[in-house]
C-alpha cells in the first residue's frame, strides 16, 4: 500500500508542476490518471485488509460495479450514442460533423459482430492474428482517448488573474449575420471576465477573431463585434481579426494584431472558447508562439459528444506522424507475434 501511495503522491506532484508550466499538455491527463489509479489501488488494499466491515464492504461494492460496467457498459454506451445521434438530428443540421456518435455506435456494433464470428467460426491463423493485433491497438487507442479526455477536462481549471491585456475570442460560425448560441457563449464568458477585471483595474482589450466563411454574409469577427457593442462594450476596447479560418490562424493572426496594437513586448493574454475546445486551442496557441491560457464556456450536453469526438480526431491529426507510426509498428509486431506463436 505504501508503494502505491508514494507513487500517487509523486505523480500528483509531477502533474501539478506540468500543469503550472503548460496547461495544454497531454501529460497532465496521464500523470493525473496514474496518480488517481495508484491512490485507488492503495485504498482497495487498505480497505480489504482493514478490520472495519464497512471498508471491506466498499471493496466488494466497487468490484460489483466494475463487473457490471464490463458486462453492460458497452450496451449502455450504444444506447447513449444512438439516442444522442437522434437528439442532435432533431436540434442541429444533418451533417457529417453531427453524425459522429451515430458512426461510433455503428463501428462498435461491427466490432462486436466481428468478435462473434472470430470466436464461433474457423478462420485462417493470419486472419485471427490480424484481428487480435487490431483489437489490442483499439484498446491502446481507448486508453489514449481516456488520457485525452482527462487532459481536456483539466485544461478548464485555471486560476486566471485579473491582469490581462487582451482576450482573444475564437470564432465558430454564424447564422446569416448573427452569432450562433455557441459563439455567443464564447463572447459572454469573455465579457464576464472583462467586467470582473474592469471592477479591479483597466479592462482587457477584446480581440474578435474569425474570417468570413463561404456560406457567411459577413466575417465572424464583425458579427462578434456587433454583439459586444450591443452588450455595452466601448468600441475602443475592441480589435478585429477577420482573416482567419482555422483555430491555428485565429491564434497566429490575433497575435499579429496584438503586436501591432500593443506598445509592450510581452502581453498577458487569455483566449475564450468552449470548454471542450480549451485544450486543443492551447496547443495551437503554443504553435503560434502565443503565450495564453483559455477560459471555456459551457456547452449544451447534447452537443458535447460529437464535439469531443471531433476534438479528439483533430488532436490526433495534429500529432499524426507520431501516433500513426506507433500504431503501425505496434500492429505489425503484434501480428507477427500472434502469427508465429
What's the alpha carbon Rg, rounded to whole Å?
24 Å
Beta-strand percentage? 5-15%
Query: What is the β-strand count?
Result: 7
Pick out the low-confidence regions.
Answer: none
Structural class: alpha/beta
Q: What shape does the CA trace take?
A: globular
Q: What's the story with the biggest beta sheet? A: 5 strands, parallel
Mean pLDDT: 94
Oligomeric composition of the shown chains: single chain
Order of secondary-structure elements:
HHHHHEEEHEHEHEHEHH
- Kindly report the spatial arrangement of strands forming the biggest sheet: 5-4-1-6-7
Number of helices: 11
**Helix share of residues?**
55-70%
Distance between the termini: 37 Å
List the helices and strands and how they pair.
Blueprint: H1 2-21, H2 26-49, H3 53-91, H4 100-120, H5 125-154, E1 166-170, E2 174-175, E3 178-179, H6 181-198, E4 205-209, H7 220-230, E5 238-241, H8 247-261, E6 269-274, H9 278-287, E7 292-297, H10 304-318, H11 320-340
Parallel strand pairs: 1-4, 1-6, 4-5, 6-7
Antiparallel strand pairs: 2-3
Amino acid at each position: 500500500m505504501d508503494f502505491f501511495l508514494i507513487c500517487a503522491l509523486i505523480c500528483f506532484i509531477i502533474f501539478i508542476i506540468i500543469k503550472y508550466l503548460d496547461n495544454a499538455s497531454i501529460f497532465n491527463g496521464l500523470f493525473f490518471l496514474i496518480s488517481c489509479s495508484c491512490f485507488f489501488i492503495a485504498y482497495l488494499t487498505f480497505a480489504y485488509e482493514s478490520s472495519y466491515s464497512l471498508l471491506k464492504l466498499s471493496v466488494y461494492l466497487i468490484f460489483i460495479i466494475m463487473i457490471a460496467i464490463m458486462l453492460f457498459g458497452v450496451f449502455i454506451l450504444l444506447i447513449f450514442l444512438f439516442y444522442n445521434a437522434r437528439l442532435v438530428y432533431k436540434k442541429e443540421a444533418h451533417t457529417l460533423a453531427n453524425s459522429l456518435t451515430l458512426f461510433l455506435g455503428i463501428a462498435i456494433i461491427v466490432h462486436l459482430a466481428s468478435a462473434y464470428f472470430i470466436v464461433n467460426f474457423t478462420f485462417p491463423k493470419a486472419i485471427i492474428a490480424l484481428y487480435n493485433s487490431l483489437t489490442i491497438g483499439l484498446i491502446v487507442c481507448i486508453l489514449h482517448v481516456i488520457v485525452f479526455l482527462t487532459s481536456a477536462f483539466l485544461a478548464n481549471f485555471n486560476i486566471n488573474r485579473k491582469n490581462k491585456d487582451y482576450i482573444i475570442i475564437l470564432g465558430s460560425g454564424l447564422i446569416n449575420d448573427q452569432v450562433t448560441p455557441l459563439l455567443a457563449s464564447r463572447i459572454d464568458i469573455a465579457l464576464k471576465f472583462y467586467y470582473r477585471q474592469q471592477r479591479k483595474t483597466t479592462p482587457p482589450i477584446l480581440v474578435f477573431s474569425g474570417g468570413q466563411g463561404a456560406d457567411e454574409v459577413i466575417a465572424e469577427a464583425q458579427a462578434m463585434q456587433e454583439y459586444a457593442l450591443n452588450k455595452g462594450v466601448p468600441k475602443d476596447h475592441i480589435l478585429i481579426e477577420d482573416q482567419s479560418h482555422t483555430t491555428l490562424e485565429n491564434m497566429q493572426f490575433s497575435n499579429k494584431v496584438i503586436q501591432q496594437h500593443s506598445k509592450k513586448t510581452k502581453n498577458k493574454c487569455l483566449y475564450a472558447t468552449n470548454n471542450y475546445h480549451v485544450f486543443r486551442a492551447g496547443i495551437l496557441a503554443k504553435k503560434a508562439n502565443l503565450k495564453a491560457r483559455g477560459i471555456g464556456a459551457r456547452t449544451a450536453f447534447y452537443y458535447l459528444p460529437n464535439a469531443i469526438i471531433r476534438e479528439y480526431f483533430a488532436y490526433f491529426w495534429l500529432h499524426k506522424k507520431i501516433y500513426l507510426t506507433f500504431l503501425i509498428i505496434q500492429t505489425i509486431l503484434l501480428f507477427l507475434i500472434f502469427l508465429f506463436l
